[in-house]
Amino acid sequence: MILFLDGGYTLAAGNETCAEIIQKCLQHEELVLVKLEENMDWNSVYRYLEDAHAIVLAADVYLDSVPSLVLRFLEKVEQAVIGGESIGGRFYAILYTELYEGEQTSVAMDVLKNFCVHANIAWGRGLGIGGNKMETHTHKDVFWGRRHKNTSDYRTVSLQEHALFIREKIQGTDVYIKPEEVSRKGYIRKMNQKMKKSNRVKIALN
Amino acid sequence: MKMIVHDMQEESWHGLGVKLQEKDIVISDAAACTGSEIESAMGSCCQLILISRCVYGGFSPFIQGVLEKCRRHFGPLLEMRHGQTHYEVKGGNKNTFGMVCCFYGEHITPQEEQSARLQSVSDGISLQARGVKIIFYDTIEKLSQLKGIIL
């Protein structure tokens, strides 16, 4: 069983969610999804943590850290390990940032690695995804005159690759990605235009 | 005006004997602030002091929670700084306020110290601080040495 911890990650609208991509690659292995919240059923969380062959944490990064909610969860897990719980599964992380460079999640990744050392959990692999505000492009099919979703989302391949490491429970080098099809300047321009447009709509509605 | 955010017990905090001026703002578990209060203080302070337990080489959940409330301190637009994308900062104290990140805790490993340093510098860049001072103490009692650093 693979335990997928949802630490409040977001994907741009129109994409397959991260958990779905991983589930597809797992073949027949069960994927249990747990959303991290203030009030959780800790007994079942501990049972899942004990039974899981791999633990996957997906979270957004803000100011170089995972959310405070995730930090509280990790501290509680460490306390449980000190209290006698044993976690045998490897730990994999998927961190998202709206900033262009996936490397901007590397400090948060280090925090998760330090947690693994404290909780005596084996580190698997980290995937840091930058440019997470990028939406899947739709383009007009000239021949049929219909709109189709472009399936070559820069995140999908990296998520699929990450899922293979998770499925095989092997360790790998951390990977940081960015939307290569757009330059840094182009990304900033695009995101700022989008933001200004949505602000204009908000003002008009008010 | 200085803004101090700490995650200490009130007793330990008062034990430090930090001299406060009328306009200074202290945010702690016992003196919580709303997001807009934090934003306005952050945008006008001359010194931002974060006193945090070192948790896995980063800030404690409380301090991180306060930083999360500052989202509106950043403008919605992105800009390029130091060769990387960052959110534009709205505050009028851009590049003028100093930031002090003070981590305390026993058994802080070299790896944790390194990531805490990286996080502090990186946050200083994101918030557009003039400079960042990073200090580590292995006991809470030693935090009294901060008195010489806080303005």
What does this structure look like?
The complex is a heterodimer of chains A (206) and B (151). With 206 residues, chain A is of the alpha/beta class. Chain A has helices spanning 18-25, 42-51, 68-82, 106-119, 154-168, 184-205; strands spanning 2-6, 31-35, 54-60, 90-96, 123-129, 138-141, 146-149, 175-177. Chain A has one domain: 3-Layer(aba) Sandwich (Rossmann fold), CATH 3.40.50. In chain A, the strands form 2 sheets. Chain A has a 6-stranded parallel beta sheet with strand order 2-1-3-4-5-8, sandwiched between helices. A two-stranded antiparallel ribbon of chain A has the order 6-7. In chain A, strand 1 (2-6), helix 1 (18-25) and strand 2 form a beta-alpha-beta unit. In chain A, helix 1 crosses helix 5 (154-168). Chain B is an alpha/beta fold and 151 residues long. Chain B has a single domain (2-148), classed as Flavodoxin domain (Rossmann fold), CATH 3.40.50. Chain B is 27% helix and 28% strand. Chain B has 4 helices and 7 strands. Chain B has helices spanning 10-16, 35-42, 61-68, 110-127; strands at 2-6, 25-27, 47-53, 74-81, 84-89, 98-104, 131-137. In chain B, the strands form 2 sheets. Chain B has a 5-stranded parallel beta sheet, covered by helices on one side. Chain B is globular. Chains A and B meet through helix 3, helix 4 and helix 6 of A and helix 3, strand 4, strand 5 and helix 4 of B.
